[in-house]
Amino acid sequence: MSEKKKLTSASGIPYASNEDSMTVGPRGPILIQDFILHEKMAHFNRERIPERVVHAKGSGAYGTFTVTHDITKYTKAKLFSEIGKQTKTFLRFSTVGGEKGSADSERDPRGFALKFYTEDGNWDLVGNNTPVFFVKDPKKFGDFIHTQKRDPQTNMKSPTMMWDFWSLNPESLHQVLILMSDRGTPFSYRHMDGFGSHTFSFYNDQNERFYVKFHFKTKQGIQNFTNDEAVDMKSQDPDHSQRDLFESIEKGEFPKWTLKVQIMPFDDAKTYHLNPFDLTKVWPHGDYPLIEVGELELNENPDNYYAHVEQAAFAPAHVVDGIYYSPDKMLQGRILSYPDAQRYRLGGNYEQIPVNRCPFMTNNYQRDGLMAVNGNGGSNPNYFPNSFDDIEVDESYKQPAWPMESLMADQYDRNAEGENDHYTQPGNLFRLMDPEAKKNTIANIVGAMGGINGVKKDEIINRQLCHWFRADMSLGLGIAKGLDLNLDQAMEGMVHPDPAHKATNE
Ligand code: HEM
């Protein structure tokens, strides 16, 4: 008798023919009773789930985070409790605007979504490879993303939509400048930094709070494609980043990042010259230096892409004891959005999928629903309070109260006064670039803005040019020259009233 495994139906019934359908005689039609044929076709028809509405194309791997420096004076989070402590992680990288089949080397920010499987539950840090973002209010997110997707009529990507939106939202300038530099086309996922991007908060075992930003510095070194190289790679190998990550892990060349944090004392937020919760700004390192915390290593390729990478669900809402949110409006908007998207994409019990499941403990009274596959609580009570089980609320997880005066409630009303300097930080960033990086950035912007067309072409170009000039005179001039614009007209753009300021002040 054969030692091999028997081929079976999904219900485990062995069957004899996997290739020939059951017919009425050798030349006759197919019999409807061929249940296996029906099962195979029906399952195939259901193979697709909605792709992520953003960040649809991605790559992922498991890894280990190891603490190398003591930060217990800032946070009581157990994963940071002692030097040498290790925590299992899962990291999913992604591009943002393209569909699941799009090319990895597109000019786009890259997602850097990291799940730490801690003993206090899963902590998800869902960031990008840039420390800032295009908008600072979640109300604008859907509109912004529409401009990165396809035109409703032509079904094509539209530089006109993109630059129209960016030029009307000058708060985008910082992120757009990074996107248009060669950092917009990283060589691979291994050769870029990752950022938590938002301001989060820490609290320690004395219940003292701090604000914190997370930075993951690549140990492989930053490496970017030039625009031409990125365009070439799209046709040569659209899955270049997936291949690079998968193969390096298979070879045992495990990619590593150093985790560093910036810490802002809680009370500084009230007086710091920038709104520290504005996602379009960085905290200059001179003010808040990087403090080393630990090392992240990716060391295990998932054995099945769909099971682990496609079904992974990250949520900025998932923070663990010792780590909390901040008043960053974008972060606040994201808290409810992700689990909502995942209930739609993966179903209400998506936390039971192995990549999302907390390996340590989940005790609650949530029951039933589509695909309740974890035993559904067995015979345990399904209500709280009850007299039968020993599940209790643990008061030691109570957070320190959030002092209201820290929120400056009289000032941070919608868009606070004095927050419309969208130009200083992008200008400083451009001035920091070496001549080669400046040249490439200008050429990339000229190439990208060259795609603007239609009846509003001149209006959009002038409005955007005005923002570039405001950031840095030589940047504006370089772009105007590259676009073959009349210099007098271009300079005039600088003194045009800026309608977008009105929009962001509302
Ligand atoms: C994915 C919404 C801002 C990084 C997603 C998804 C949604 C979403 C609905 C798909 C989730 C899923 O189906 O699993 C939003 C909203 C935002 C926002 C409403 C602003 C209000 C940001 C920002 C960052 C970011 C500021 C980075 C700093 C990511 C990443 C993913 C993602 C990395 C992919 C996660 C993965 O690999 O599964 N976002 N997003 N998003 N978002 Fe955002």
Structural write-up:
This protein is α+β, with helices and mostly antiparallel strands and 506 residues long. The protein folds into 3 domains: 41 residues, Cytochrome C Oxidase, Chain J (Irregular), CATH 4.10.91; 279 residues, Catalase HpII,  Chain A, domain 1 (Beta Barrel), CATH 2.40.180; 71 residues, no CATH class. 29% of the residues lie in helices and 15% in strands. It contains 15 helices and 10 strands. Strands 1, 2, 3, 4, 5, 6, 7, 8, 9 and 10 form a 10-stranded antiparallel sheet that branches. A hairpin with a 5-residue loop joins strand 6 and strand 7. Helix 11 crosses helix 13, helix 12 runs antiparallel to helix 13 and helix 12 packs across helix 14. The chain is globular and about 85 Å long. The C terminus is likely disordered. The site of protoporphyrin IX containing FE has 27 residues, from strand 2, strand 3, strand 4 and helix 9.
Structure characteristics:
single chain, 506 residues, Cytochrome C Oxidase, Chain J, Catalase HpII,  Chain A, domain 1, 3 domains, 15 helices, 29% helix, disordered C terminus, Catalase_3, heme
Task: Give a concise summary.
The protein has helices at 35-45, 141-148, 159-168, 173-180, 227-236, 240-250, 268-271, 305-310, 329-346, 424-432, 435-449, 457-471, 473-482, 487-493, 499-505; strands at 58-67, 86-95, 110-118, 121-128, 194-195, 200-203, 209-218, 256-265, 291-300, 323-324.
Low-pLDDT stretches are: 495-506
Query: Could you tell me the number of beta strands?
Result: 10
Class from secondary-structure proportions:
alpha+beta
If you compute it from the alpha carbons, what radius of gyration comes out, rounded to the nearest whole angstrom? Answer: 26 Å
Share in β-strands: 5-15%
Biggest pleated-sheet summary: 10 strands, antiparallel
CATH level-3 fold name of the largest domain: Catalase HpII,  Chain A, domain 1
CATH class of the largest domain: Mainly Beta
Bound molecules: protoporphyrin IX containing FE
Please indicate the count of domains: 3
**Distance, first to last CA:** 78 Å
The helicity comes to 25-40%
pLDDT averaged over residues: 94
Shape from CA axes?
Answer: globular
Q: From N to C, what is the helix and strand string?
A: HEEEEHHHEEEHHEHEHEHHHHHHH
Assign the CATH superfamily of the largest domain: Catalase core domain
Please give the count of helices: 15
CATH architect. name of the largest domain? Beta Barrel
Cofactor: heme
Catalytic activity: 2 H2O2 = O2 + 2 H2O
Active site: 55, 128
Domain Catalase core: 8-392
